[in-house]
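fyi for ur records
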Amino acid sequence: MAAPRQKDFARILVIASAKTGSAPKRNLFKRRLKSIFYENKLFEQPDDIAVIARNGSLELSFDQLKKILTDAVTKNNHKTN
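which gave:
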């Protein structure tokens, strides 16, 4: 999900409930997404981003998460422009 950013930079919110997996897996998932967000400078995008984890999403590799997140942000930016 995305919403127009409220600050001079975009932010990311990662939601992973206990139903999706153990705490260490949820934390790894959150750290990976935040790392991708900052390494790819997605904070320069015009929207704040919310990611909601679903069953099986904690099992995705770093590269798979990177592709999904960057594709989603790019796709969303083309819709708003």
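The first strand starts at residue 2 and ends at 4. thats all i got for now
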